[in-house]
């Protein structure tokens, strides 16, 4: 499941499990807001599963926000509507900023 990640300052990756209601809720919120993200199925990608587990979260999905410089800006496990709302708001405020010349 790929919606190509990003807003102009950071990217969002959702590491999910098949038939997981929390993963489905996360995707639903992101899709409803028109947010681009990369969805990775933990059942199919062992390397991604190991990376997601490295954050210490035991509940899917594991959501990772990566800054343009490649550092992890935020990460959380499970369905976290407040964290999603903050990310969505940051994307919207960023797109509302006037272009600088």
UniProtKB/TrEMBL annotation:
**Pfam families attached to this UniProt entry:** Glutaredoxin
Q: What CDD domains does the entry give? A: NrdH
Highest rank taxon of the organism: Bacteria
Domain Glutaredoxin positions: 13-65
**What is the name of this protein?**
Glutaredoxin-like protein NrdH
Native source species? Cellulomonas hominis
């Amino acid at each position: 499941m790929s919606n190509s990640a990003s807003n102009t300052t950071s990217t969002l990756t959702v590491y999910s499990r098949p038939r997981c209601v929390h993963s489905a809720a996360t995707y639903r919120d992101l899709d409803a807001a028109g947010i681009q993200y990369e969805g990775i199925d933990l059942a199919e990608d062992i390397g991604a599963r190991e990376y997601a587990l490295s954050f210490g979260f035991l509940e899917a999905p594991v959501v990772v926000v990566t800054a343009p410089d490649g550092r992890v800006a935020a990460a959380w496990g499970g369905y976290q509507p407040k964290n999603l709302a903050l990310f969505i708001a940051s994307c919207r405020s960023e797109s509302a900023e006037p272009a600088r010349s």
